[in-house]
Write a structure and sequence with these properties.
Layout lengths: L1 H9 L18 E2 L8 E2 L3 E3 L5 E6 L2 E6 L2 E2 L9 E2 L2 H12 L4 E3 L4 H11 L6 H10 L14 H22 L16 H11 L4 H14 L2 H8 L5 H8 L1 H10 L5 H23 L7 H5 L1
Antiparallel strand pairs: 1-2, 3-8, 4-5, 5-6, 5-7
Helix pairs in contact: 1-2, 3-7, 4-6, 4-7, 5-8, 7-8, 7-11, 8-9
Protein backbone atom coordinates (compact mmCIF):
# COMPACT_ATOMS: atom_id res chain seq x y z
CA UNK A 1 0.00 0.00 0.00
CA UNK A 2 2.85 2.37 0.87
CA UNK A 3 4.28 2.13 -2.64
CA UNK A 4 0.95 3.24 -4.02
CA UNK A 5 0.83 6.04 -1.47
CA UNK A 6 4.18 7.49 -2.53
CA UNK A 7 2.64 9.01 -5.64
CA UNK A 8 -0.05 10.67 -3.56
CA UNK A 9 2.53 12.18 -1.23
CA UNK A 10 4.68 13.44 -4.08
CA UNK A 11 1.69 14.95 -5.86
CA UNK A 12 0.59 17.11 -2.94
CA UNK A 13 -0.30 20.59 -4.01
CA UNK A 14 -1.48 23.63 -2.05
CA UNK A 15 -5.27 23.35 -1.53
CA UNK A 16 -7.67 25.90 -2.93
CA UNK A 17 -10.86 26.92 -1.20
CA UNK A 18 -13.99 26.25 -3.16
CA UNK A 19 -16.85 28.55 -3.95
CA UNK A 20 -19.24 25.62 -3.45
CA UNK A 21 -19.31 23.15 -0.55
CA UNK A 22 -17.03 20.11 -0.98
CA UNK A 23 -18.43 16.59 -0.73
CA UNK A 24 -18.95 14.84 2.56
CA UNK A 25 -16.45 12.11 3.25
CA UNK A 26 -18.57 9.01 2.90
CA UNK A 27 -21.53 8.35 5.14
CA UNK A 28 -24.31 10.60 6.25
CA UNK A 29 -26.66 8.61 8.46
CA UNK A 30 -25.80 8.60 12.17
CA UNK A 31 -26.60 5.45 14.12
CA UNK A 32 -27.93 5.58 17.66
CA UNK A 33 -25.47 5.29 20.57
CA UNK A 34 -24.57 1.70 21.31
CA UNK A 35 -24.67 0.69 17.66
CA UNK A 36 -21.71 -0.50 15.63
CA UNK A 37 -20.44 2.11 13.26
CA UNK A 38 -21.45 5.68 13.94
CA UNK A 39 -22.15 6.29 10.26
CA UNK A 40 -23.91 4.09 7.73
CA UNK A 41 -22.18 4.69 4.39
CA UNK A 42 -24.48 5.48 1.46
CA UNK A 43 -24.63 3.10 -1.46
CA UNK A 44 -22.54 4.31 -4.39
CA UNK A 45 -22.11 7.44 -6.46
CA UNK A 46 -20.28 8.25 -9.65
CA UNK A 47 -16.66 9.27 -9.20
CA UNK A 48 -16.52 13.06 -9.63
CA UNK A 49 -12.78 13.72 -9.21
CA UNK A 50 -9.58 12.88 -11.06
CA UNK A 51 -6.76 13.40 -8.59
CA UNK A 52 -6.35 12.84 -4.88
CA UNK A 53 -3.73 14.63 -2.80
CA UNK A 54 -3.00 15.53 0.80
CA UNK A 55 -1.88 18.82 2.30
CA UNK A 56 -0.98 20.05 5.75
CA UNK A 57 -3.19 22.64 7.37
CA UNK A 58 -3.34 24.28 10.77
CA UNK A 59 -5.37 21.46 12.29
CA UNK A 60 -3.53 18.53 10.71
CA UNK A 61 -3.50 16.80 7.34
CA UNK A 62 -6.28 17.32 4.82
CA UNK A 63 -7.55 15.32 1.83
CA UNK A 64 -8.07 17.08 -1.51
CA UNK A 65 -10.18 15.69 -4.34
CA UNK A 66 -8.86 17.70 -7.29
CA UNK A 67 -9.00 21.13 -5.61
CA UNK A 68 -11.87 20.34 -3.28
CA UNK A 69 -11.31 19.93 0.43
CA UNK A 70 -12.98 16.84 1.81
CA UNK A 71 -15.54 17.37 4.58
CA UNK A 72 -17.35 15.14 7.05
CA UNK A 73 -21.09 14.38 7.00
CA UNK A 74 -21.51 17.22 9.53
CA UNK A 75 -19.64 19.56 7.14
CA UNK A 76 -16.50 19.75 9.27
CA UNK A 77 -13.16 19.99 7.50
CA UNK A 78 -11.82 16.46 7.09
CA UNK A 79 -8.53 16.77 9.01
CA UNK A 80 -6.54 13.85 10.42
CA UNK A 81 -3.76 13.94 13.04
CA UNK A 82 -1.02 12.09 11.14
CA UNK A 83 0.42 12.13 7.66
CA UNK A 84 0.41 8.34 7.58
CA UNK A 85 -3.34 8.24 8.19
CA UNK A 86 -3.93 10.95 5.58
CA UNK A 87 -2.04 8.92 2.97
CA UNK A 88 -4.03 5.78 3.85
CA UNK A 89 -7.36 7.63 3.54
CA UNK A 90 -6.24 9.25 0.29
CA UNK A 91 -5.42 5.79 -1.02
CA UNK A 92 -8.99 4.67 -0.32
CA UNK A 93 -10.32 7.55 -2.42
CA UNK A 94 -7.73 7.10 -5.14
CA UNK A 95 -8.50 3.39 -5.46
CA UNK A 96 -12.17 4.00 -6.31
CA UNK A 97 -12.97 3.37 -9.96
CA UNK A 98 -15.95 4.66 -11.94
CA UNK A 99 -18.16 4.62 -8.85
CA UNK A 100 -17.34 5.44 -5.24
CA UNK A 101 -18.14 2.46 -3.02
CA UNK A 102 -18.34 4.06 0.40
CA UNK A 103 -18.89 0.72 2.11
CA UNK A 104 -15.33 -0.27 1.20
CA UNK A 105 -13.82 2.88 2.73
CA UNK A 106 -13.48 1.84 6.37
CA UNK A 107 -10.71 4.30 7.25
CA UNK A 108 -12.71 7.22 5.88
CA UNK A 109 -15.74 6.13 7.92
CA UNK A 110 -13.64 5.85 11.09
CA UNK A 111 -12.20 9.33 10.54
CA UNK A 112 -15.72 10.72 10.07
CA UNK A 113 -16.75 9.15 13.36
CA UNK A 114 -13.71 10.54 15.19
CA UNK A 115 -14.23 14.03 13.78
CA UNK A 116 -18.01 14.31 14.16
CA UNK A 117 -18.40 12.12 17.27
CA UNK A 118 -22.12 11.71 16.48
CA UNK A 119 -22.82 9.85 19.73
CA UNK A 120 -21.19 12.70 21.70
CA UNK A 121 -19.19 10.44 23.98
CA UNK A 122 -16.10 11.53 25.90
CA UNK A 123 -12.91 9.51 26.37
CA UNK A 124 -13.99 7.74 29.55
CA UNK A 125 -17.34 6.76 28.02
CA UNK A 126 -15.51 5.18 25.07
CA UNK A 127 -13.21 3.30 27.43
CA UNK A 128 -16.07 2.03 29.60
CA UNK A 129 -17.98 0.87 26.53
CA UNK A 130 -14.94 -1.09 25.33
CA UNK A 131 -14.30 -2.71 28.71
CA UNK A 132 -17.97 -3.66 29.04
CA UNK A 133 -17.40 -6.14 26.20
CA UNK A 134 -15.45 -8.29 28.69
CA UNK A 135 -18.76 -9.29 30.25
CA UNK A 136 -19.87 -10.92 26.98
CA UNK A 137 -16.50 -11.62 25.40
CA UNK A 138 -16.71 -14.31 22.71
CA UNK A 139 -13.70 -16.28 23.94
CA UNK A 140 -15.03 -16.43 27.51
CA UNK A 141 -18.30 -18.18 26.64
CA UNK A 142 -17.90 -21.95 26.26
CA UNK A 143 -20.19 -24.84 25.42
CA UNK A 144 -20.35 -28.21 27.15
CA UNK A 145 -21.58 -30.04 24.07
CA UNK A 146 -21.02 -31.14 21.43
CA UNK A 147 -17.79 -32.42 22.90
CA UNK A 148 -15.84 -31.75 19.70
CA UNK A 149 -16.74 -28.04 19.77
CA UNK A 150 -16.02 -27.77 23.49
CA UNK A 151 -12.57 -29.25 22.89
CA UNK A 152 -11.99 -26.93 19.94
CA UNK A 153 -12.86 -23.88 22.06
CA UNK A 154 -10.54 -25.03 24.80
CA UNK A 155 -7.64 -25.66 22.42
CA UNK A 156 -8.07 -22.44 20.45
CA UNK A 157 -9.37 -19.94 23.01
CA UNK A 158 -7.49 -20.92 26.16
CA UNK A 159 -4.11 -19.76 24.77
CA UNK A 160 -5.36 -16.26 23.90
CA UNK A 161 -7.05 -15.90 27.31
CA UNK A 162 -3.83 -17.08 28.99
CA UNK A 163 -1.86 -14.54 26.94
CA UNK A 164 -4.16 -11.70 28.01
CA UNK A 165 -4.00 -12.72 31.68
CA UNK A 166 -0.19 -12.73 31.56
CA UNK A 167 0.12 -9.63 29.38
CA UNK A 168 -2.07 -7.46 31.61
CA UNK A 169 -1.54 -9.35 34.90
CA UNK A 170 -5.26 -9.98 35.36
CA UNK A 171 -7.70 -12.82 35.95
CA UNK A 172 -10.27 -13.46 33.21
CA UNK A 173 -11.24 -17.12 32.98
CA UNK A 174 -14.15 -18.66 31.09
CA UNK A 175 -17.58 -20.13 31.79
CA UNK A 176 -20.21 -22.44 30.34
CA UNK A 177 -22.94 -20.54 32.21
CA UNK A 178 -25.32 -18.36 30.26
CA UNK A 179 -24.36 -15.61 32.71
CA UNK A 180 -20.78 -15.79 31.53
CA UNK A 181 -17.60 -15.57 33.62
CA UNK A 182 -17.36 -13.46 36.74
CA UNK A 183 -14.81 -10.84 35.67
CA UNK A 184 -13.10 -9.28 38.73
CA UNK A 185 -13.47 -5.52 39.14
CA UNK A 186 -9.67 -5.25 39.31
CA UNK A 187 -9.43 -6.78 35.82
CA UNK A 188 -11.84 -4.21 34.40
CA UNK A 189 -9.96 -1.36 36.04
CA UNK A 190 -6.67 -2.64 34.62
CA UNK A 191 -8.12 -2.52 31.11
CA UNK A 192 -9.57 0.92 31.81
CA UNK A 193 -6.10 2.15 32.77
CA UNK A 194 -4.51 0.54 29.73
CA UNK A 195 -7.03 1.98 27.28
CA UNK A 196 -6.63 5.41 28.85
CA UNK A 197 -3.13 5.50 27.34
CA UNK A 198 -4.70 5.77 23.86
CA UNK A 199 -5.98 9.02 22.38
CA UNK A 200 -9.60 9.61 21.38
CA UNK A 201 -8.99 8.72 17.74
CA UNK A 202 -7.33 5.42 18.57
CA UNK A 203 -10.12 4.56 21.00
CA UNK A 204 -12.67 4.94 18.21
CA UNK A 205 -10.66 2.39 16.24
CA UNK A 206 -10.35 0.02 19.19
CA UNK A 207 -14.09 0.06 19.79
CA UNK A 208 -14.66 -0.56 16.08
CA UNK A 209 -12.41 -3.65 16.12
CA UNK A 210 -14.09 -4.93 19.28
CA UNK A 211 -17.55 -4.66 17.74
CA UNK A 212 -16.33 -6.60 14.69
CA UNK A 213 -14.72 -9.43 16.65
CA UNK A 214 -17.19 -9.31 19.57
CA UNK A 215 -14.17 -9.61 21.84
CA UNK A 216 -11.97 -7.20 23.79
CA UNK A 217 -9.40 -9.96 24.31
CA UNK A 218 -9.03 -10.80 20.63
CA UNK A 219 -8.96 -7.11 19.73
CA UNK A 220 -6.14 -6.33 22.14
CA UNK A 221 -4.23 -9.39 20.93
CA UNK A 222 -4.58 -8.09 17.39
CA UNK A 223 -3.67 -4.50 18.21
CA UNK A 224 -0.71 -5.66 20.32
CA UNK A 225 0.46 -7.71 17.30
CA UNK A 226 0.20 -10.96 19.26
CA UNK A 227 -2.08 -12.50 16.61
CA UNK A 228 -2.72 -11.79 12.95
CA UNK A 229 -5.94 -10.47 11.43
CA UNK A 230 -6.62 -13.90 9.92
CA UNK A 231 -6.16 -15.60 13.30
CA UNK A 232 -8.26 -13.06 15.18
CA UNK A 233 -11.13 -13.42 12.71
CA UNK A 234 -10.91 -17.23 12.78
CA UNK A 235 -11.04 -17.27 16.58
CA UNK A 236 -14.00 -14.87 16.60
CA UNK A 237 -15.88 -17.16 14.18
CA UNK A 238 -14.81 -20.43 15.75
CA UNK A 239 -18.28 -21.89 16.31
CA UNK A 240 -19.44 -20.79 12.87
CA UNK A 241 -16.38 -22.33 11.22
CA UNK A 242 -17.02 -25.54 13.17
CA UNK A 243 -20.57 -25.70 11.85
CA UNK A 244 -19.36 -25.00 8.30
CA UNK A 245 -16.85 -27.83 8.52
CA UNK A 246 -19.62 -30.13 9.74
CA UNK A 247 -22.54 -29.10 7.54
CA UNK A 248 -20.94 -27.25 4.65
CA UNK A 249 -21.18 -23.60 3.63
CA UNK A 250 -23.56 -21.51 1.58
CA UNK A 251 -21.88 -20.94 -1.77
CA UNK A 252 -19.99 -17.58 -1.85
CA UNK A 253 -21.90 -16.15 1.14
CA UNK A 254 -19.60 -17.44 3.88
CA UNK A 255 -16.49 -16.51 1.92
CA UNK A 256 -17.82 -12.99 1.42
CA UNK A 257 -18.61 -12.59 5.13
CA UNK A 258 -15.16 -13.87 6.05
CA UNK A 259 -13.34 -11.51 3.69
CA UNK A 260 -15.45 -8.55 4.75
CA UNK A 261 -14.79 -9.20 8.44
CA UNK A 262 -11.07 -9.47 7.76
CA UNK A 263 -11.16 -6.16 5.90
CA UNK A 264 -12.97 -4.36 8.71
CA UNK A 265 -10.73 -5.81 11.43
CA UNK A 266 -7.59 -4.96 9.46
CA UNK A 267 -8.80 -1.41 8.76
CA UNK A 268 -9.66 -0.81 12.41
CA UNK A 269 -6.29 -2.11 13.56
CA UNK A 270 -4.44 -0.01 10.99
CA UNK A 271 -6.47 3.01 12.08
CA UNK A 272 -5.41 2.51 15.72
CA UNK A 273 -1.74 2.28 14.79
CA UNK A 274 -1.81 5.22 12.39
CA UNK A 275 -3.56 7.38 14.98
CA UNK A 276 -0.80 6.54 17.43
CA UNK A 277 2.03 7.27 14.98
CA UNK A 278 4.14 10.38 14.70
CA UNK A 279 2.69 13.03 12.39
CA UNK A 280 5.45 12.42 9.86
CA UNK A 281 5.71 9.29 7.76
CA UNK A 282 9.14 7.74 7.91
CA UNK A 283 10.91 7.62 4.58
CA UNK A 284 11.40 3.88 4.95
CA UNK A 285 7.64 3.30 4.83
CA UNK A 286 7.42 5.11 1.52
CA UNK A 287 10.28 3.09 0.12
CA UNK A 288 8.93 -0.35 1.12
Amino acid sequence: MWCGCRRLLQSRSPPAWLSRPPPAAGGSSPVRPGGGRAYAPPAERKRFYQNVSISQGEGGFEINLDHRKLKTPQAKLFTVPSEALAIAVATEWDSQKDTIKFYTMHLTTLCNTALDNPTQRNKMQLIRAAVKFLETDTVCYRVEEPAALAELQKNEWDPIVAWAEKRYNVAIGSSTSILGPNIPASTKETFVSHLASYNMWALQGIEYVITQLKSLILSMGLIDRHITVEKAVLLSRLEEEYQIQRWGSVEWAHDYDLCELRARAAAGTLFVHLCSESSTVKHKLLQD
